[in-house]
Amino acid sequence: MELVATVIVLALIEYQVFGMLVGRARGKYDVKAPAVSGNEVFERYYRVQQNTAEQLIVFLPAITIYGFYGNSNIAAGAGLVFIIGRALYCRSYISDPASRGPGFLIGFVATAFLLLGGLFVAARNLM
After folding, report:
1. Per-residue confidence (pLDDT) for residue 3, from 0 to 100
2. pLDDT in tens, the chain (127 residues)
3. Whole-number Å distance between alpha carbons of 123 and 119
4. N or C: which terminal CB in the chain sees fewer CB atoms within 10 Å?
5. Residue 105 CA, distance from chain mean position
6. Domains detected in the chain
7. How many CB atoms lie within 10 A of CB 23?
8. For the packed helices 2-28 and 72-95, what is the interaxial angle rounded to 10 degrees?
9. Could you give the CA distance from residue 123 to residue 127 in angstroms, rounded to a whole number?
10. CB atoms within 10 A of CB 81
């Protein structure tokens, strides 16, 4: 589970970095708090952070459950795929929101694998 814990920390660090990028964009594009709109590029940074928060709500319990009941090495690998997908999503969304699909799909598939895998192994352990 140490690898799973490491990947979870890396995912949370990535989220923190996205938050810092939002703060930097807020200053660069002169979007005063508490506003979350006003400049299209700022809004892209903000949406990356918000969408990542939405994804983490499912990803974190999914990787924990699969790592605990299933295979922690596979869970950590899928978690790294999630992180890479979110980084690609960030880069793509900021440069051109229409190109965000592949990054989103990579992260989504990794999370779905962990979620369904966690359900399967937990149910199997019940029997």
Report:
1. 97
2. 999 999 999 999 999 999 999 999 999 999 999 999 999 999 999 999 999 999 999 999 999 999 999 999 999 999 999 999 999 999 999 999 999 999 999 999 999 999 999 999 999 999 8
3. 6
4. C
5. 11
6. 2-126 (1.20.120.550)
7. 12
8. 10
9. 7
10. 18
Q: What is the token pair recorded at 18?
A: 């996205």
| Tokens (6 digits) for 62 | 């999914």
Angle at the Cα of 45 from the Cα atoms of 39 and 46, rounded to 5 degrees: 85
Place of tokens 């352990």: 125
Report the distance separating Cα 122 and Cα 23, nearest Å. Answer: 40
Query: What is the C-alpha separation between 105 and 110, in angstroms, rounded?
Result: 8
Rounded to an integer, what distance in angstroms lies between the CA atom of residue 74 and that of residue 7? 11
- What does the pLDDT read at residue 26? 96
Of the candidates 78, 14, 83, the one whose C-alpha atom is nearest the C-alpha of residue 49 is 14
Neighbours of 33 (CB within 10 A): 7
Here the tokens at position 102 are 């592949």
